[in-house]
Amino acid sequence: xxxxxxxxxxxxxxxxxxxxxxxxxxxxxxxxxxxxxxxxxxxxxxxxxxxxxxxxxxxxxxxxxxxxxxxxxxxxxxxxxxxxxxxxxxxxxxxxxxxxxxxxxxxxxxxxxxxxxxxxxxxxxxxxxxxxxxxxxxxxxxxxxxxxxxxxxxxxxxxxxxxxxxxxxxxxxxxxxxxxxxxxxxxxxxxxxxxxxxxxxxxxxxxxxxxxxxxxxxxxxxxxxxxxxxxxxxxxxxxxxxxxxxxxxxxxxxxxxxxxxxxxxxxxxxxxxxxxxxxxxxxxxxxxxxxxxxxxxxxxxxxxxxxxxxxxxxxxxxxxxxxxxxxxxxxxxxxxxxxxxxxxxxxxxxxxxxxxxxxxxxxxxxxxxxxxxxxxxxxxxxxxxxxxxxxxxxxxxxxxxxxxxxxxxxxxxxxxxxxxxxxxxxxxxxxxxxxxxxxxxxxxxxxxxxxxxxxxxxxxxxxxxxxxxxxxxxxxxxxxxxxxxxxxxxxxxxxxxxxxxxxxxxxxxxxxxxxxxxxxxxxxxxxxxxxxxxxxxxxxxxxxxxxxxxxxxxxxxxxxxxxxxxxxxxxxxxxxxxxxxxxxxxxxxxxxxxxxxxxxxxxxxxxxxxxxxxxxxxxxxxxxxxxxxxxxxxxxxxxxxxxxxxxxxxxxxxxxxxxxxxxxxxxxxxxxxxxxxxxxxxxxxx
Amino acid sequence: xxxxxxxxxxxxxxxxxxxxxxxxxxxxxxxxxxxxxxxxxxxxxxxxxxxxxxxxxxxxxxxxxxxxxxxxxxxxxxxxxxxxxxxxxxxxxxxxxxxxxxxxxxxxxxxxxxxxxxxxxxxxxxxxxxxxxxxxxxxxxxxxxxxxxxxxxxxxxxxxxxxxxxxxxxxxxxxxxxxxxxxxxxxxxxxxxxxxxxxxxxxxxxxxxxxxxxxxxxxxxxxxxxxxxxxxxxxxxxxxxxxxxxxxxxxxxxxxxxxxxxxxxxxxxxxxxxxxxxxxxxxxxxxxxxxx
Lengths: 686, 292
Hints:
The complex is a heterodimer.
Chain A: H1 2-19, H2 22-48, H3 55-72, H4 78-97, H5 105-125, H6 127-130, E1 136-137, H7 148-171, H8 173-183, H9 185-190, H10 195-221, E2 223-224, H11 231-244, H12 249-266, H13 273-287, H14 291-295, H15 303-317, E3 330-337, H16 344-364, E4 372-379, H17 384-396, E5 402-404, H18 409-421, E6 426-427, E7 442-443, H19 449-463, E8 469-474, H20 477-492, E9 497-503, H21 511-520, E10 524-528, H22 531-543, E11 550-553, H23 560-566, E12 574-577, H24 588-600, H25 608-627, H26 633-641, E13 665-672, E14 675-678, E15 683-684
Parallel strand pairs in A: 3-4, 3-5, 5-6, 6-7, 8-9, 8-10, 10-11, 11-12
Antiparallel strand pairs in A: 1-2, 12-13, 13-14, 13-15
Chain B: H1 3-34, H2 41-59, H3 63-86, H4 94-116, E1 132-134, E2 137-139, H5 141-163, H6 165-175, H7 177-182, H8 187-213, H9 223-233, H10 238-258, H11 261-264, H12 267-278
Antiparallel strand pairs in B: 1-2
Helix pairs in contact in B: 1-5, 1-6, 1-8, 1-9, 1-10, 2-3, 2-4, 2-8, 3-8, 5-6, 5-8, 9-10
């Protein structure tokens, strides 16, 4: 019976790429990667009872090691790369594990939590190697143009080897020693088990597994950035072994499969996803202690995993769409965006209250050439790997016509190659990194950061004659992109940045940074932050009574939210504004936007994020209308490229050329009595 | 860098540190009673602060009323959570409650997003931000206010644990649960009181810190600093939690002053790992010897 089961499983795994839709081949690869992590974590947590919230850090080490090998020594065989990823991570694991030997329970958990944070910081700090917050693109490894199927077999084989190894390890003296330590360290010691050596071994082994998985992760996802490896990823791994079952090899695999599949199928629930996950965690602890592995001893519980799998497959076949997301009656668009995580508010406003708002107007007026527009959104929580999975699902399962208004540089960059390869248009992403230039199917959204910087510096130096500059920037892709652009543009005017200070996302206090900037006494101080820290910086300036500098906010920061948070500390702040005031402007387009918001979402306040999404939908609608009934991806791209003097009533007449840039302007504002007062007409940077 | 501005940074650091200390205290109170970690402490703080804000925002009541509303909401939430989710799981390993509170934190953050959106909101403060002169030094009332209010709350807690019957019962349970039960102390009541007390301390910290970091569904992440502070000081030790919080606040503020961007944000965690290596039970904690 057991043998039959094994043979059937192996046969199914081998045949999978030929029987399953393309997306499910990718999803299965992800399951194998996660299964290897879960095995590794279970060796440490399940067998020796040392709970770790730092395994995302180990995964990162393996992933970056593999990526760097592939980049700098592309001829290295895959197996060597993976082994190296595992070995390096194991070394780090032992180096970290030895000092942790003295720590018990809670303290060890805390140390692993801290370890995870240190690794993310290390990735940011070693940006010469890792490209820091910009993210690292991983070229395919050298096994003859590894496609989806190749990657699938690579992960499947590796996972199989690791599973067999784990089964053997836990059945030997080592496994028994681990279990003895779990039951009672003191009793194990008394029975002659060298506890310290075995605990170190458990750490090393666990790290090795996770490192190998990291290597696979790099190949499967194809893009690494520190955002991928936050503490919530570690929480996901813990969830896998809790759901699957502690100290169980099959449990690890089943847990990884269930969590991966749930993550995927719940992405459509957007901001309900963390809620559902929380309920699952609690339900598991309350009603299924020991996880699936223990529960399968009760007959009816055996059905649960198979039922879940059935559900996923059903979800797969229900997409009955015609080609390319355009049918006689419908156009399907979508994107992966943040509905949870640090940029959840922006994501929800830009999509559900921005893009959808305009499409509601369009649909109620008869649609685009007789076709209604439908949108699909999935939550990625600002993680690149989830953006990749979501985008593949949108393209391969939901068969969307184009991606519209995704958000954030790391998630967007992670999907760039895939979309370009598959000739899916990527329209108007809510990010400003210039790295998206020069792609056939990509059209920019907001004014790119280098253009914003050029406008700002040219205006401040050329028209206002300022000479000394300082900057307070967020320690991520957004902040650093602006910092380097400012430095470049200042150099054109033979000027230098007098002081540059960084702020971490979610920081509690910025007094030290402001004190250092003040000591440099710049005439102008740039803020490249998100609304919260931006307002904190303004309040801090008020606290120390620093008045002899002009505070200038960057484009994405210049919005009402930040004024509302800062209150009277914002008076006199200047900045580049990309959008007219969504609440007060009497431009015809903005009035129409407010009227639509009033009509469809009367509880939602107008704001710049939803205005930008609304504008993106407008641009799409204009081009799609011109492309006519024979709408294809190619005709859409041509129509977009031929946009001439499109008058939205929101921005000045807009033309798109072969450079695929949409918005290129901004105007100068100063805060007076709590409102942005325009100081210039639209500025341009060509 | 002048001495005056250095002093300002130090005072700001102590203000941040007081908030961390309150978070750490809340965690330690629960830990001492039930030997578990409450991962949802930050989200409970966030929910109670949101309730306080809603009272202030919709009813227009004064700030004191919103503080009271936050405290009541915190107490109620903690009581329900303890009764419904925690009590039945507490006898199992320390993981069970930890994982349950982890799930709870995900749920609470999601619920906050659905009710109040994931936006950030300004929160009124008891104290102003315009600096006042104390001799040659200028300090912001908000920093002094946070430190002062936190110290007052800590003193009240210390008095409660030292001199009241309830405090003695809680200390007894922390020392030896079985013995406490045999002495006629209702351990279950101590569990419930500890959760309520911890949640109330958290709510006060939330109302104090919300004007500084702003009110949002993300503000619960401050609990990670609370953990770090509690571990620094030695989990279980109340003076340790206060010392750990203050130390962490200072480190976080002084690191950007003297260290380059690349390493400054790792410093708190590196210090944590270093202290654990040297003193595995934290600065003021005691290693518990377990007899077989």
